[in-house]
Design brief:
Blueprint (H helix, E strand, L loop, with lengths): L1 E6 L9 H13 L4 E8 L28 H6 L1 E6 L5 H10 L4 H4 L4 H13 L4 E5 L7 H7 L9 H5 L4 E6 L3 H12 L6 H24 L2 E4 L2 H10 L5 E3 L20 E5 L5 H21 L4 E5 L16 E3 L7 H5 L3 E4 L9 H8 L4 E3 L16 E2 L3 H13 L1 H18 L2 H13 L14
Parallel strand pairs: 1-2, 1-4, 2-3, 4-5, 5-6, 6-7, 8-9, 8-11, 9-10, 11-12, 12-13
């Protein structure tokens, strides 16, 4: 098949959620199909001030063209368009003057739309794979070039049939904003954020439902997300294709650090990650250090948000900023923590840590979407006291850490290697029957 991926950033090197998933699918599909990618090239952000540990200059999000992109070019054909500039003033104006959610406008680009139209006009793709809701606005271009055929297709429609349009919903976005609203509502200082999330939650309910109804196939990363989408559109046909990890790249290694080390990884201007780190640093870490005073907390990820500035002075906390490879930081973790309280979809960071055989403590929301059992593949805890107790137990019992790490690795190898997941995407592409889309309903 000829498959065209629309992605929000160059998917190699894969250094954050969308790029990790898109690269996992693209690299796997490229072994058997002809894959093309139309993407945005993100400019490098300004250097951040030091925040403890070592702060390095950050590369373009999702990679850059040139040497680092060679594996991508070896796998597929790629063209990039400059990332659109959208200022806070633009976002405020759009919030007031339109009913569109922020994510529908974030990557609006006339140049990208024109290049997509050019590709579709001259090439016959079997599949157009929309990699995330930020790219869903380009459904307009696909439908303009390939209108849905009427009862009597024209010669042109028969010669160049409309490609199968697959919407890959990386997160159930309306659910993420709903949870952000409910979390921020608890703290008066976060009420402006709560107000923003409330507006986005309502708008995304409509928009996400519309996108699902316009696409020919809809992918969700978990059964929980699929159920949330069916709540928006009763009767929606959703295929669950989970996130994955390359278990040949993420492998167990011995722990070399003798200091009790707690590690969290993620893009650190992403709101759920910021909330998770602040909650853990303020509510959980002091309880852990009361029992294990030498414990240290490493926050590994690019673009630390200014809300994290208050953690800079704590000698027990290190914010690394961008690192070229997160695996050494995961490898040194005595315990990997996933204290998320906001979010949708599934957390790729969890798969990476489990694939490397690290013992994990997570909130139930942090592990949502994965059929794990508390006490078998990881430990689950939702309150500060319970989370701290679980971490302390693992810090004090090396044999339990080994047991959990081995079970986690086996779990990921069996169910979440990309080599297992990519055939499920192919099966969705190859389904020949057409499912009639139900009318848009924005319930839930």
């Amino acid at each position: 098949m000829k498959v065209l991926f629309l992605t929000p950033q160059v998917p190699y090197p894969p250094q954050q959620g969308a790029a990790l998933r898109n690269w996992g699918l693209i690299s796997g599909l490229a072994a058997r199909h002809e894959v093309a990618v139309l993407s945005f090239l993100v400019p490098p952000p300004p250097l951040s001030p030091p925040m403890g540990g070592t702060e390095e200059g950050e590369p373009p999000m999702g990679g850059k063209e040139g040497g680092d992109a060679d594996p991508l070019r070896a796998a597929c054909r790629i063209e990039t368009v400059r990332f659109p500039v959208r200022t806070p003033r633009d976002r405020l104006r759009d919030m007031i003057t339109t009913r569109q959610p922020d994510m529908a406008l974030r990557l609006a680009s006339e140049l990208y739309a024109q290049r997509l139209a050019d590709w579709l006009a001259v090439e016959s793709f079997d599949v157009v794979h929309i990699g995330g809701i930020e790219m869903a606005s380009y459904l307009d271009v696909i439908e303009a070039v390939h209108p849905s055929p009427g009862p009597s297709p024209t010669r042109g429609e028969l010669d160049r049939p409309r490609p199968l349009v697959v919407f890959d919903n990386l997160n159930c976005e309306y659910l993420l904003q709903q949870r952000a609203f409910l979390t921020d509502l608890r703290a008066p200082a976060r009420w402006p954020g709560a107000a923003y999330s409330f507006v986005q939650w309502q708008r995304l309910r409509r928009y996400e439902a519309q996108v699902c109804c316009r696409a020919d196939r809809v992918l969700a990363v978990s059964e929980a997300d699929a159920a949330a989408l069916r709540k928006l559109v009763p009767g929606l046909d959703v295929s669950v294709v989970p996130n994955g990890v390359d278990t040949r790249t993420y492998t167990p290694t011995p722990i070399h650090s003798h200091t009790p080390t707690l590690t969290f990884t993620g893009t650190m201007d992403f709101r759920p990650n910021v909330d998770a780190v602040l909650w853990f640093a303020r509510k959980v870490l002091p309880r852990v250090r009361a029992e294990v005073p030498e414990a240290r907390f490493f926050v590994v990820g690019q673009r630390p948000h200014r809300r994290l500035d208050g953690l800079r002075g704590d000698p027990a906390i290190t914010l690394t900023g961008w690192v070229e490879d997160a695996r050494p930081y995961i490898a040194q973790a005595t315990v990997y923590v996933a204290p998320l309280r906001i979010g949708g979809g599934t957390r790729l960071k969890l798969l990476e840590a489990m694939a490397m055989g690290r013992p994990v403590v997570a909130t139930r929301l942090g592990a949502e979407g994965y059929p794990v059992t508390d006490g078998r593949e990881l430990l689950l805890a939702d309150t500060p006291a319970d989370f701290a107790a679980a971490v302390v137990t693992l810090l004090r019992t090396p044999e339990r850490r080994v047991e959990l790490g081995q079970a986690a690795r086996a779990f990921v190898e069996r169910w979440y290697d990309w080599r297992t997941i990519v055939p499920r995407v192919e099966a969705v592409y190859l389904r020949t029957h057409q499912t009639k889309r139900p009318p848009v309903q924005t319930g839930g």
